[in-house]
C-alpha cells in the first residue's frame, strides 16, 4: 500500500510516481488548493490536490486530521520560495492524483501538536494517540536500536540468549514480590522474579559460559518518575572471567553503543573506590560532570567552641565537610534558604555557609553567620583548603557521616544544575571496592549488593571481622546515574555459608530459600560473575528523557484509571473460588 | 582463564601453549598416565598428565568427575593409532603442565553419560546437571541462534522491537488467566497476558507500522509435553499490508532461517483452503509428508442397507470417508484392534476396514467384516475411488463429520509414523480461508481465531448469514505442527461491532472488555494484520525434540517437587494480609 515512506522522500525522487499511506497530520485550504501534510513513521510529506482532479480534490477536501489515507501522486519540486528547510522533505511536495480514505477519525481528544496543553492524564488515557507524536516515536525506535545493538554485540562475543522463568519462587533481592496464586498447588503462590539472578548463576553452573537476556523484572514498589513495577534489565553473566574481564567487555559494549548511536566516544572509564566516591562526592554514583567536591575539614574544626561543628568532628561516625560553589557568592539569601530546606529532606539540621567577598582582606572579606563561632583563623584555613576565591561560596555539612554525605551529595547535584556548573556532556566511571556489608536498622549487617556477591577476602577473614571487608562488586555510573551493577559471585559453598552466617541467615533458612543454589555449588560451580544494566535508564539517558513514561510504550501510572490497558481489573467470585482465595472485608 | 575453548582445539593448534578451563568429564588412569577429558561449552579435549611433573600429576590424580579445573599445557598430535575420529578434537591431545582445581564436586546425582538410566524426575530436580549434557547445550544454543536470526531478519525489514506489559488486564484469548493481586488497588488483580494481541494492535493505531517482540505469554492450563504455562511467541504486526504481504514476509523469514541454520530449502509454501485441508486430511494442520488422504465415499454408501454407513452418509453434518493405507494388508488383527481403540479416543464408535488381497478376483479378493453389508459392487466402487491396489488396506470413518475428521485425521498421522510412510523431511504449507466462526457447545457461534480477525465480507453480509463466512486468517503449518497463525485484523469499528454482535457480546460487555480497542478504532486505525509464531514449537521442530523440556532451560513440571526453582512457594500470613487476601479452608 506504499512505495515509499512519507518521511523518506527527497529531491532525488522528483519526477517519480509514488504511493503513500499514512495519517492526515494537517489539512490546509489555500488559494483554491488543498494541502495535506501526510504522516507516517518516517516523517511528514506535503501533498497538494488541485481542483482539476475533481474526485480526489473532493475527497481531499473532506478529510480531517488523523484520517488514514492511501494516495498516488507525482513527486515534484516545491515552487521556489516555498521550500521548508526545517523539514527533511521540505524541498519536495507530492501532486496528489488518486486518494482513498482507508479509515476516518473522530476529532481526537487532543491534537499531536497541542500535547503540551493537555494534562499527562489525558495523554496517558489516550496513549495510542500520544504514541503518535514524533518525539515518542523517535524514542521508542531508539530503544529498539539500543537493544538490537546490544544483542549483536553480545552475540558476537559468544553470549547466549537464554530465557529464564517469569513464574518462579521468591528471589532474594529484598524488595516486595508480586505473587501469583497457583490453581494446581492450592494455597501456594508463584512469585514474579525481581531479577534472573539465581537462574543465571545456575546457568553458569551448567556450563553455558556466557549468558545474556533482556529480561523483564518485577518489584511491587510504588511508582516514581524513573521507576515502574515492571522494568527491563540487560542481564549478563560469564564464567571463568574476573572483574577485569567483565568490566572490560561491558565497558566496550556501552562505549560502542554511544559511538554508534550518538557518535560520542566516552573514552576509557575511570575507576573509583567506593570510599573515595563517598569522600569526594558523598555518593556512590557521583556525577563527574560536576566539578564540585566535598572537602573534609573535621581536623580544622575539632577544637573550636562551636558544638555544631566540633561534636561531629570528634565523633568517629561523624563528618564535617565543605562544598565550595564557584561564583556562589551571588546566591541570594532566599536561594540559600531554599537550599537549607532542600538539605533538610536528607536529615541535615541546617546549612552553614561562608561567602568569599574579598580574600585579600582576610577574615574581614568573608561574609557568614558562622565565622564568629569558628574563629577567623579556622575560617581562613578552611578557605585555603577548599581553594576558595573571591566570588565563591562555601557550604558546610556537619552531622553523622551518612547525613552529611546524603545532604551535601544531593546539594552538590542541585547547585551544579541550578548554576550550570557541569563541565562536560558525558562522564562515565566505574565505582569499585564496595563494602561487603552495611549496617541495618537493628545493628546487624546486611549485604550491600546481594548475598551472592564474592568478598575480596577468605571465608575465615570474613567471619572474623566482617565490618569493613570489601566485595568484588562494581557499578557502572554515567552522569550520576547507576547504569549497571554487578559482581564476581561466590562459587564456593564454604564462602557462601560464611556470608549467610555473617548475615544471620540460619542454615535452615538458607536451605529453605537458596537450597537449590547451595546444592548447585556442591557439584562443580565455576568461578563466575556478571552485571545487570537497567535498560529503561539507559534509554532515558541516551534520549535525554526526564520520565520513564517517555521510553516505554505502555507505562503504568499511580491512578488505575489513567491507563486503561494497564489497570488491574476485577475478578469474579468464581475465579477466586477456583484459586481458593477469599478477599478480606475492607476494615 | 582460557586461551581456547576445549572443543575448539584442532590439528592447527599443535605446538601451541594453551590454557583451558572447564569440567572434568572423565578421568582415566592408564599405563601410569592420567587422562582427563576436559569439557566446556564447545566440547571435550583429552589432557594427559605424565608422572614426571609431580605436582600437577598428583593433582590430576586427585580430581574427580565434574571438578572445575584450569590448566596450562601443550597441544600435540595424538600418538598414531589413538586418534579418535568421532571427536572433533580427536586428532590432538594436550600435554598438561600446570593444573589448578578451581572447585571440587561431590559425586553428582547422575553422570552425564548415564542420564538415560535415571528418571526424568531426578534430572529435572538436578536441572543444573542435566543442562550440562552436550545435547541440551546444543539445543539451547540453537534456540539462541534462532531468535538472533529472527531478530536480525525483522530489524532488516524495518520491524521495531517494542515491549508490551506483563502486568495487564485480562486479554480475550479465552484460556484461563494467571491473576496477580494488586497491593495498591485492593481487591483488584492484574492478569498476565495470554498474548500481546491488543497491545500490538494499539501500536499499529499509533503508527509504529511494523512491530515485533519475542514475548512471554501465559496461560493457566495444565501441562503437556508440548505445553508450558509460560511460553514464548514471536509476535509480529504490520500496517498497510494485506495477507499476501504478511504471509510473504514471514514465509521468507522461516525459509531463510531453515536455509541458514539447517541448510534446508523449504521452497515456496503451498496454500490450502481450510475446507480442503479438512476434506483431504481431516485436519487444519495437515502433515503433508504423509501421502495418505481421506476420500469421501458417502455418495457410494448412501443407499446401502448398512445403517452405520448409510445414516451419516445421508446426514448433512455426517461424513463417510475412506483412508487407504498402502501396504496395510499386512497389518495384524491385533494392530487393527489397537487402531480401533486409538480412534475411540476421538469418539469413533468403531473402525471398519477392507484388506485388498487380490483385486483381480473382484470382491472375492477383498477381506473385510463389512463387505457383506456394503454389497460387493459398492465395495469395489470404493476400492476404485481410493485407487486401492493389492496389499493395501482401507480404513473407514462414518459419523458426524467432526468425529470422522478427528479420528481418521489422527489415525492417518499414527499409521503414517508406524508404517514409515512419510515421503519427505519437511513439508510446509499455509492454511487459508478459515471459517470466521464455529459452533460452540450451546449452539451459538464462537470466533475460530479471535474476535479481532477480519472477515472476508462486509459487516452487513456478516450479520445476515454469519455461518460459512470466511475470515482473512492464515496458519503456517510445518510437518503437521501449527508453527504460527495470524490474520488481517478488523480496523473498522462498524465491522468490529458486527463481529461482537454475531458472537453475542453486548455493547456493554464489549465496552467493558475491549473499550480501549474500540476507542482506538475511532481515531484513525490503519489497515493492519500480523502473525504469532510459537518459538518453543519452532525450536522443537528444528532440533527434533520430542518434549518442550529439551528446548527451555527451566521448565515447569506437573509435580511441584520436581523442579525446585519453579515450584510455587508458600506465602506468609503477613503477605496475604497486605494483599487483603484470605485463603479458603480446603473443603
UniProtKB/TrEMBL annotation, chains A, B:
GO cellular component: cytoplasm
GO MF assignments: aspartate-tRNA ligase activity; aspartate-tRNA(Asn) ligase activity; ATP binding; nucleic acid binding
Keyword Aminoacyl-tRNA synthetase among UniProt keywords: yes
Binding sites annotated in the UniProt record for L-aspartate: 173, 219, 449, 489
Predominant localisation class: cytoplasm
Stored InterPro entries: Aa-tRNA-synt_II, aa-tRNA-synth_II, aa-tRNA-synth_II/BPL/LPL, Asp-tRNA-ligase_1, Asp-tRNA-ligase_1_N, Asp/Asn-tRNA-synth_IIb, AspRS_core, GAD-like_sf
Record's subcellular location: Cytoplasm
Top enzyme category: ligase
Site (Important for tRNA non-discrimination): 30, 81
Protein name, per record: Aspartate--tRNA(Asp/Asn) ligase
